[in-house]
Amino acid sequence: MDATANIMCQEDPVNPVVSTCLQVCGILVVSHLFHLIFKPLGQPGPVAQVLAGLVLGPTLLCRIYVIERFFIKPNSAEYYRFYAFFARIFFMFLLGLEFDVPFLKRNLHLVTTVAYGGFMACGIFGAAISWFIIRELTISYNKIAFAIVTIILIANSASPVVIRLAADLKLDTSDVGRLAMSSSLINEMSCSLLFSLVVAFTEDGMFKTLLLSIFLTASLILVNCYLVIWFNTKSRNQKFINNSQVLLILVLLISVSMIIESSGLYSTVHCFLVGMMFPREGKTTRTLLHKLTYAVHNFVLPSYFGFTGFQFNISSLSTIDNVIVALVMVSLSIAGKILGTLLACYHLKIPLNIEAVILAFILNLKGHADLVVVDASPNSEKWWGEDIRRLLLSVIVLNTLMAGPVVSFIMRKQEVQLTHNRTSIECLDPESELRMICCVYKPRNASGQLGLCSALRGKQGAAITPYLMHLVELPKRRKKKNLMYHQLQDGDQFSDEDEYGGNDVMEINEAVDIFSSETKIFVRQIKAVSSFPTMYEDVCSQAEDLRVSLIFLPFHKHQRIDGKMEKGKDEMRSTNQKIIRHAPCSVGILVDRGCLEFQRLLAPDSLQSVATLFFGGPDDREAIACSKRLAMHHHLNLTVIRFLPSEFGEEDVNVSSSTASPHFNLGNEVFMSIARRNPENKRDDVYMDEFYKRYVSSGQIGYVEKNLRDGAETLQALRDIGDMYSLFIVGKGRRGCSPLTTGMSDWEECPELGVVGDLLASMDFDIKSSVLVIQQHRHTSSKSFTDD
Contact at 8 Å (CB) between 450 and 439? Predict the structure, then answer.
């Protein structure tokens, strides 16, 4: 029986492939098991998975004969490399698709300085120590090429490992995390290009091959642009493009990558560039992200990281010379990254605090391009022998196993310092990046929310990162589909997760696609499927993880065709109220009456008037801060109207020579900058004085002051301007904080809008303008999710 099995193993040509698949599955299972064990200890996934491979490999468990016989076969190394080739194609293409190109454009000098600071420091250390390594390892051939390879191993930052570690530690949306991810990609692409040039100039005919790979990459990028347009048009009435279209894109990618690899070069840069230049708009990118993200993050990368640790062999450190070489390379890699990164931060005038140290250790993670370099013709004496290859693999694994836990330890110790602190926009510069979540319950909410995104971008190219979050009610009972996979329609998913939301998903996707194509603003979509009592937890958790400064909610009432406001589900209103109470950032509620559609803002002859009402207090200052961004939009004309009690009228006006400007009186309206004496309003006065000098004096924003006595006059003043503006922006305000709103809350219907916001949204007020109510985040009012 055993003899027959051995003959089958030798004669069956499919058996090595099956064995390799089983081995990869074994590595995957153990990697996930280690991740579950080490995650409660604060260790990120890549570290646990590399450690799992190390335990499973020749260092420990593969010393047992049965396990060694299963995992290590005569030709298993070749099949592992074949699997690693496909893994690299998919995750580098996905990294390109997910890459934050706008962040790189805005911070190109910052990113490149940090990336090349560490690269140059490590390169200098590597060049200085290469003679020592060559002597210790008795390298007698191709010494210059080996020195360059040593520099690459010390200087490289593995972008897949950095990105996964940042995601596991929830650093991927922070400034230091995004800087680390972008810098690691620049660093790794530079190392890959350097190695390709070394290969091209050391082997005959490789320079022509390099030019061919550039031509193939550019051609594939161009072909993808046309394919995306065709697929998006063909799949107009579908949620996703079908499987055959996805397969065509991946086949083209794999085919070109195989041509490049077969010519002697490596397709790492090619796959990343194809993904980065892939058109972001439409169903094609959404489908690729949907199908690749889960598979790559849960199957491809864990097994790839596990295989990285699996290649570590403790026998490569059996001699004292090898131990010294490994320690020297690891030490210089860490020292070079720390020194280079800190010098880059000092040059950029970035504080040399704990974030700079975390950045340095994150950029010291290895495990991708360096593996490609080590695996370059491992059996060819032109590069190095198998013993040296194992030693260099050990250096790569040791670097990652040391840097990862250090980052995790620092994160735990400095958790408070690294938490999100941009929870409001009052303290932000209007030209800095604005991160926000726009929530929608139904497709009719999407137009107004997307209009806000377009308006808040201000001038063309301003920094804005919008997330559109579809809030879907989880039904209590659900009919099960007893369908096999082959019975599904082409493009459908076996999981029923995407069916939540019904046809609303298609309509929202269509609105986002049109918006992205016309405004060139990439909107990241999120879906929260939950029961209404707990839906606010999902929104608040996402806001904290994504580090947003604003959450925009749709009002629970919507406008009918006849212009009247119709009440929606009470659960929507309850969810809005809970989000307002528990949100980790500022919150805005949009009462949409169709005046803020983004198509109107894009019309060449469109000019809409927007008014910000200022009564005083933190919420109104937040509304002013939001208005500053709207004022930069060339299709919006903004006016700030400040309401003041009449006892602080003209007789109390002080106009200094530095702030004096031409003014005139219209009744009790005064157009000027005022310095108020009331100490209770000192912060408001200082804020508005700075606002006037920067925006009103230059003519960017109009400014009006109204001096009133009580709530009755305030009500009349609001009626007078009710039809003059398309959008009113007002702070929610605190109950009873202003004498100008006295008596206006007697018939209050929606307290979550505040006194003035509730009045403007009321059907009795009868205006056609949309209303945006802003509440500034207050640290003292935050509650835990268990309070309700």
Answer: no
